[in-house]
Structure formats: structure tokens, C-alpha cells
Specification:
Blueprint lengths: L2 H11 L6 H4 L5 E5 L2 E13 L4 H6 L12 E7 L2 H7 L21
Antiparallel strand pairs: 1-2, 2-3
């Protein structure tokens, strides 16, 4: 990924406060800034991002901004078809982000 895209990827993949059973069903992650989709990713592997040894091992170089258990993902950019559908588009009001910083849709 180019450096700017890498920043979007890293910002979207780290330290989600989620339940593993539910998040493992996620097919696409839409990275949004101010209601616009800036990145579309396919999570391939969910990893422990909780503070401590697991986070250091799984996400080296990431700063902890949390104190509770979290997950993060390793993934790839979505295919061109999915990129065309979502990238640069505005997120509908019905899918507004919740207090947790994300929203499940169809999971």
C-alpha cells in the first residue's frame, strides 16, 4: 500500500472493542473519515490487540490508546469491484457510527 493508504489501513485495523464471534463474520471494513469512505479492506485474520505482550507481538509500533481487551485485523485491500462501490462515497445516515467507533451492517 502507498504510505497514505497505509495510514488509513493501520488506523482502521487496530484496537476494536468487539466480540470475536461476531467480528469474524465481517466481510468488509470501510474506513471512514467525516462520513466518507477512505479505504475498503477485507480482514483475513483477527488478532489480540489488548494492551501488553499480545499487542506488542501482533501490532508492533502501535501506541496503546486503550486499557481494555481489543482485537485488530490483518487484511488486504478489497477488490476493484468493492472499491468502486464504496470508496469515496458518503456513508448513509442510517449507518452512523456508534459510540464504539464502528457499526456492524448485515452481520
Amino acid at each position: 500500500l502507498p504510505i497514505g493508504d497505509r495510514d488509513v489501513y493501520d488506523a482502521s485495523r487496530y484496537a476494536w472493542r468487539v466480540r470475536r464471534a461476531r467480528v469474524e463474520k465481517v466481510e468488509l471494513v470501510l474506513a471512514c473519515v467525516n462520513g466518507l469512505v477512505q479505504g475498503v479492506f477485507v480482514p483475513k485474520l483477527w488478532l489480540d490487540a489488548s494492551p501488553g505482550e499480545a499487542s506488542v507481538k501482533n501490532f508492533p509500533g502501535f501506541a496503546w490508546t486503550h486499557t481494555t481487551p481489543r482485537l485488530g485485523f490483518e487484511g488486504i485491500e478489497a477488490d476493484v469491484a468493492d472499491q468502486c462501490i464504496y470508496l469515496g462515497k458518503r456513508v448513509p445516515e442510517a449507518f452512523a457510527i456508534g459510540q464504539t467507533g464502528f457499526r456492524y451492517v448485515g452481520v
